[in-house]
């Protein structure tokens, strides 16, 4: 019997106590650990603590759904799940966008089912323009010439019946490696789905691929698929299929393990989410543009090369110089603590940015409370010669994930 748990990132799953998992089940996580990202799990006294990751982990018969811990006061799993999915869509980690009641309905589904349904939605969209078809060589005994006559075979086969002609020809077919890989992936996803609704969606797509040969598909089969000008628009879908299969069947040095790992690093996801919103907000504001992960400069030099490379999360560039730098932090900050509880290392980092890039405004962007609008919560003046300003912003992820705007101070005036 499968045991399902829904936890928040950085939460601990009890081991050997009521409401948790058994030591034998914990051993399954130990076997899976080599296939997991570093810092995803940490072994603590009588428990397994999860790091800043969200998604789905399965070890043996235990399935963990990890949701973002956005606000201590908000324990609504559907809302956290919906916010995470919206962040994944904004950063192109998930595909087709939806709205209205369909999106609200999906928020109640387990994350794995949402990943599967999202994949199916992308398949449906692509199939509207037709499945991938390729020319394949055929040989058949026909009543009319098609392609070229195979004289040798025709002489052997039709020595008595002269009404037929043995031909060799090329014919477009959907029964090819790409569609076989797609059908194999969908077959796997149907097996892993927990939702009858999602299983039905997968079954409907499989029915549309009835003409395609069924065969077992692995990650290497998909990774080796060739694409040309006519099929290249399918490439992102097969990359997603590869990610799903790799997560559903992770490998360790000792071979395959009975587990699943489909997770996202929340620190990188939050950075990507804010970056996407920021780029959209500054779009069309030439010569201003947002540069991601750059421009890269060195903080120091040696006699031979640069040293201590700097790489800002987001920089506002006006074509000549960097005007502002934004640094996204997937951390908690506390309005009641001195300096909002901001780590000194984060301020040291921004001081280095302001000094090296010569900009007079740098900013920290944190996730804020679900019941407070996105806003500028404070400012500091750095006591260095140019006296740049450090702005501290808190963003309401629940609002942003539903089309809300960044604080006005982060956008063009």
Automatic annotation (TrEMBL):
Single GO molecular function: endonuclease activity
Cross-referenced PANTHER family: PROTEIN MCRC, TYPE IV METHYL-DIRECTED RESTRICTION ENZYME ECOKMCRBC
This protein's name: Restriction endonuclease
Organism per entry: Rhizobium hidalgonense
UniProt-listed InterPro entries: McrC
Pfam families attached to this UniProt entry: McrBC
Top-level lineage group: Bacteria
Keywords for this protein: Endonuclease, Hydrolase, Nuclease
